């Protein structure tokens, strides 16, 4: 009975966990890792890896990729869109390699995958995920960024809408967690002769650095400003609390009260 | 129970009430253990007679009623509710007054309550000091920096006197739970939450009375916990983030950029000889 209950619960919980946390699994054909995200989800156990144009079959509970097959044409973008997707992915891999030790990334076409040249807009979704869990060091954390990039080749623009979410956990003889997120919007011009991928990833890199700086600022304000709203480091007098004086004060108040009661 | 406690220790502090409720639903047989072993933010009640708030905990509870430290009356009303002895009640009243002033100086608002009782072995006495602060903009926050901000401190002290009644032995166990979310709309939500528990023992002369000693120990402990949370614990979460995503262009010895630059310099030096 317990076994069945566990299986039932696991079947529901694991897929949700795996996709929400964007776990990456080793593909058995040695072609790299596949990122499990809602953007690449074809069904509950099949996930598209755009980089290798293949479909990974996944066992959620065991957290293992059991099989890899080439993707069907209908799941892949047109050659025109793929050109852009490939360019963004190449620039992205370099950025992720530099900035995210151990991070994984992927670029999906999430709208207009059949668009041909001068055929209108299409959307690429850039996903970056870096997580680190070290229970023996009592720490863990995860960074996720999702950037929706709407490309309009006629207007030569790429409009970016990004969400970065971060959480960090430290629990050695205590339990402290950080949760933070930020949304960004930006538009960039795609110039002739300049690689679209490099341009777009450059904006992403810049905005993610802006976010990191604002986190830095929040942390530096913590001790002297933010924390004060909860509890000051010291009273306004800048000395420790005068317990003996306070006792005298309360005794005086009591005596005064006794006096006024007796009148 | 072990698995349940492990889970409670790791849940995001802001979800601890939800987590506890879920565990209670799953393990009703262990409810009393779960409730006594996991700390939850303090609840508040209103004393109509004294026009003041007071905090609720196991030590001022009798059945489903809670005793106010101001009027010493139970709410809901209780005939024959547990009351401290006259001597301990006097100490309790004094403690509440003095800790009110302490609370005001450190917390610039907030609510405090002190309860005193005689322990089961009849030796010495025990007390708990509770402090709750809502530092959000809507609460007692004075600088408008927090969208959400709560601090709950629970200090339990056991006091025993030596034979000559010259020295007191104090054993203090303190838990602080806090949660804060900054209000800066443009930079997105930044939330930190945490809880830690520490213990401290001390032998002090009773020449200035027990209240003075208890006060000093609580003050020392609160400062340690505040600084510990702020510098060590929150600092570690920052470390985690900056390890996940390194600041680019920063010349640190361990950063990716720093290391490749180091290699470049070493190579250049080797070539120029």
Automatic annotation (TrEMBL), chain A:
Gene3D superfamilies: F-actin capping protein, alpha subunit (3.30.1140.60), F-actin capping protein, beta subunit (3.90.1150.210)
UniProt keyword terms in alphabetical order: Actin capping, Actin-binding
SUPFAM superfamilies for this protein: Subunits of heterodimeric actin filament capping protein Capz (SSF90096)
Keyword Lipid metabolism: no
GO cellular component: cortical cytoskeleton; F-actin capping protein complex
Any one GO molecular function term: actin filament binding
A Pfam match: F-actin_cap_A
InterPro entries referenced in this protein's UniProt entry, alphabetically: CapZ_alpha (IPR002189), CapZ_alpha/beta (IPR037282), CapZ_alpha/beta_2 (IPR042276), CapZ_alpha_1 (IPR042489), F-actin_cap_asu_CS (IPR017865)
PROSITE patterns: F_ACTIN_CAPPING_A_1, F_ACTIN_CAPPING_A_2
UniProt-listed GO biological process terms: actin cytoskeleton organization; barbed-end actin filament capping
Keyword Mitochondrion tagged: no
Family: Belongs to the F-actin-capping protein alpha subunit family.
Record text on subunit structure and interactions: Heterodimer of an alpha and a beta subunit.
Function (record text): F-actin-capping proteins bind in a Ca(2+)-independent manner to the fast growing ends of actin filaments (barbed end) thereby blocking the exchange of subunits at these ends. Unlike other capping proteins (such as gelsolin and severin), these proteins do not sever actin filaments.
Protein name: F-actin-capping protein subunit alpha
Species per Swiss-Prot/TrEMBL record: Ceratodon purpureus (Fire moss)
UniProtKB/TrEMBL annotation, chain B:
Protein's GO biological process: actin cytoskeleton organization; barbed-end actin filament capping; cell morphogenesis
Keyword entries, A-Z: Acetylation, Actin capping, Actin-binding, Cytoplasm, Cytoskeleton
GO MF terms held by the record: actin filament binding
Keyword Isomerase: no
One Gene Ontology term, aspect cellular component: cytoplasm
Localization in the cell: Cytoplasm, Cytoskeleton
InterPro entries (alphabetical): CapZ_alpha/beta, CapZ_alpha/beta_2, CAPZB, CAPZB_N, F-actin_capping_bsu_CS
Task performed by this protein: F-actin-capping proteins bind in a Ca(2+)-independent manner to the fast growing ends of actin filaments (barbed end) thereby blocking the exchange of subunits at these ends. Unlike other capping proteins (such as gelsolin and severin), these proteins do not sever actin filaments.
Subunit structure: Heterodimer of an alpha and a beta subunit.
Family as reported in the entry's similarity comment: Belongs to the F-actin-capping protein beta subunit family.
Protein name, as recorded: F-actin-capping protein subunit beta
């Amino acid at each position: 009975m317990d076994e069945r209950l566990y299986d039932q619960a696991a079947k529901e919980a694991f897929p949700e966990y795996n996709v929400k946390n964007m776990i990456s699994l080793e593909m058995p054909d040695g072609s790299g890792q596949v990122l499990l995200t809602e953007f690449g989800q074809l069904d509950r156990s099949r996930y598209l890896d755009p980089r290798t144009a293949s479909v990974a079959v996944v066992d959620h509970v065991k957290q293992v990729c059991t099989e890899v097959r080439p993707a069907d044409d209908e799941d892949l973008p047109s050659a025109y869109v793929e050109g852009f997707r490939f360019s963004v992915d190449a620039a992205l891999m370099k950025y992720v390699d530099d900035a995210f030790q151990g991070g994984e990334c992927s670029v999906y076409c999430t709208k207009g995958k059949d668009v041909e040249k001068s055929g209108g807009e299409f959307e690429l979704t850039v996903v970056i995920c870096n997580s680190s869990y070290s229970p023996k060091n009592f720490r863990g954390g995860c960074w996720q960024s999702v950037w929706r990039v709407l490309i309009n080749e006629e207007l030569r623009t790429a409009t970016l809408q990004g969400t970065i979410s971060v959480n960090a956990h430290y629990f050695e003889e205590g339990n402290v967690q950080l949760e933070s997120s930020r949304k960004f919007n930006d538009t960039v011009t795609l110039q002739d002769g300049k690689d679209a991928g490099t341009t777009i990833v450059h904006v992403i890199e810049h905005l993610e650095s802006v976010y990191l700086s604002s986190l830095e600022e929040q942390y530096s304000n913590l001790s002297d400003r933010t924390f004060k709203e909860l509890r000051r480091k010291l009273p306004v007098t800048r000395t420790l609390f005068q317990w003996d004086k306070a006792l005298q004060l309360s005794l005086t108040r009591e005596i005064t009260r006794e006096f006024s009661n007796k009148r | 129970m072990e698995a349940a406690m492990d889970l409670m220790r790791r849940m995001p502090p802001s979800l601890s009430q939800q987590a506890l409720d879920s565990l209670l639903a799953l393990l009703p047989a262990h409810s009393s253990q779960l409730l006594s072993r996991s700390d939850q933010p303090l609840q508040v009640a209103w004393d109509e007679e004294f026009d003041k708030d007071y905090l609720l905990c196991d030590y001022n509870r009798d059945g489903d009623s809670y005793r106010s430290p101001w009027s010493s009356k139970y709410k809901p009303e209780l005939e024959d509710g547990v009351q401290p002895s006259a001597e301990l009640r006097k100490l309790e009243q004094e403690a509440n007054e003095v800790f009110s002033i302490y609370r005001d100086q450190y917390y610039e608002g907030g609510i405090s309550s002190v309860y005193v009782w005689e322990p089961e072995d009849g030796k010495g006495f025990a007390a708990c000091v509770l402090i709750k602060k809502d530092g959000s903009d809507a609460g007692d926050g004075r600088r408008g920096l927090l969208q959400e901000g709560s601090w709950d401190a629970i200090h339990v002290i056991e006091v025993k006197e030596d034979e000559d009644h010259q020295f007191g032995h104090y054993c203090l166990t303190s838990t602080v739970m806090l949660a804060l979310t900054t209000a800066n709309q443009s930079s997105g939500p930044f939330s930190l939450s945490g809880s830690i528990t520490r213990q401290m023992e001390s032998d002090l002369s009773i020449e200035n009375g027990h209240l003075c000693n208890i006060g000093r120990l609580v003050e020392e402990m609160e400062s340690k916990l505040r600084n510990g949370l702020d510098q060590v614990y929150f600092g570690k979460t920052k470390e985690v983030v900056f390890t996940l995503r390194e600041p680019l262009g920063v010349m640190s010895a361990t950063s990716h950029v720093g290391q490749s630059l180091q290699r470049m310099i070493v190579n250049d030096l080797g070539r120029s000889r």
